[in-house]
Amino acid sequence: MTTITEVPAVPGPRSPNEPKRSYPVSGWAVFGALVVAVQLWAFGHWIITGNATPTPTGPDAVPTWMEWSIWVFQGLCLVAGAVAVYWYFIRVWRRGERLGFDSYMILGMYLTFWQDPLLNYFQKWAIYNSSLVNFGSWTSSIPGWLSPDGHLMPEPLLFVVPTYGIVCFLMVVVGNLFMRKVRERHPTISNVRLLFATMAFFVVFGGAVEMAWMRLGIYGYPGAIKSLTLFAGHYYQYPVYEMFFFAATFTAWSSLRFFHNDRGETITERGLEELRIKTPKRASWIRALAVTGGCNAAMLVVYNAPLQVFAMHAEPWPADFTERSYLMDGFCGEGTTYECSGVDTPIPRRGGDHKNPEGELVPAEKG
């Protein structure tokens, strides 16, 4: 249910002798604005360069059960996303009410989906099933992107956008229910211990969700480090470190919604009341950008950045992937000039020399 938060009255003028104060909300809003600017650039450049085209499934047929499962799942995600937009935005506006924190957080989560393919920033080791509705991805248009042909990642917009916007938010709500129950049962528990308990919860709960999605063939981690992977060698192999950072990210998002100061402000909203904001509309914009900044910072710092270390040690792709062209995305292997990741395979850079599937050196194109 949407929480209604009234915008406070504008504070009076500051005394000349009053020391300057820092307002966390301002920093979060600036970061949120930067994140939105990067997205607009990446999406715009992706479309203008003509890279916004579907990644084909290749010669191998997608199993009928997998294709039907994928279509049903995409449909459910799309419906869930539409319901969320109506319930948390349209319904609130029609009532003439102000948006509550949950509405701002859902918006922030929607504006986090652009980070989804960042796992492959340095080296390609994660994939999506290219039979999902896709137009490739915007990664090659992200400033500084290093791995070649990043735009071939078949980002499934019907799945990814509503999943970040509402499915992930609902998981955060479940996480908050767990946190509340733990605190009721153990009133003196410290915040640190509560966070560790929440993370353990998400390792089990979130891990089960991810493994179900991978069993359906929605996505996978072919470059996973085998000694740290469950079901190694299968298309649904699941790296334990992914489970850990997945849980850590949801713990961070849950904390963003759970912890408040004595004014009821989350960490991203603190200082909003003290700012000299002339209109409620401007306050809403600042709040939206601040929460967006918080959601994105959590995923960038807790998930995508540390996983790059493991990506640099990606191992050879199992046959259960390489024999399914719809799980290769045209990244490497047969039909490409790139050898898939491996201990003896140099990590290719966009526009640089690289090895082909036969192990031969392919010089960088000049000009």
General description of the model:
- With 367 residues, this protein is mainly α.
- It has one domain.
- 48% of the residues lie in helices and 3% in strands.
- The chain is built from eight helices and six strands.
- The chain has helices spanning 24-48, 64-94, 101-110, 157-185, 191-215, 240-258, 280-311, 319-322, and strands at residues 127-128, 219-220, 229-230, 238-239, 354-355, 361-362.
- The protein has a two-stranded antiparallel ribbon.
- A hairpin with a 7-residue loop joins strand 3 (229-230) and strand 4.
- The longest helix has 32 residues, at 280-311.
- It is globular, with a radius of gyration of 22 Å.
- The protein starts with 23 loop residues before the first helix and ends in a 5-residue tail after the last strand.
- Mean pLDDT is 90; it is low at 1-15.
Order of helix and strand elements from N to C terminus:
HHHEHHEEEHHHEE
Strand order of the largest sheet: 1-2
Residue-averaged pLDDT: 90
Shape: globular
What key attributes describe this structure?
two-stranded antiparallel sheet, mainly alpha, 3% strand, single chain, 367 residues, 8 helices, disordered N terminus
Which helices and strands occur, and which strands form pairs?
Elements: H1 24-48, H2 64-94, H3 101-110, E1 127-128, H4 157-185, H5 191-215, E2 219-220, E3 229-230, E4 238-239, H6 240-258, H7 280-311, H8 319-322, E5 354-355, E6 361-362
Antiparallel strand pairs: 1-2, 3-4, 5-6
Short note summarizing the structure:
48% of the residues lie in helices and 3% in strands. It is mainly alpha-helical.
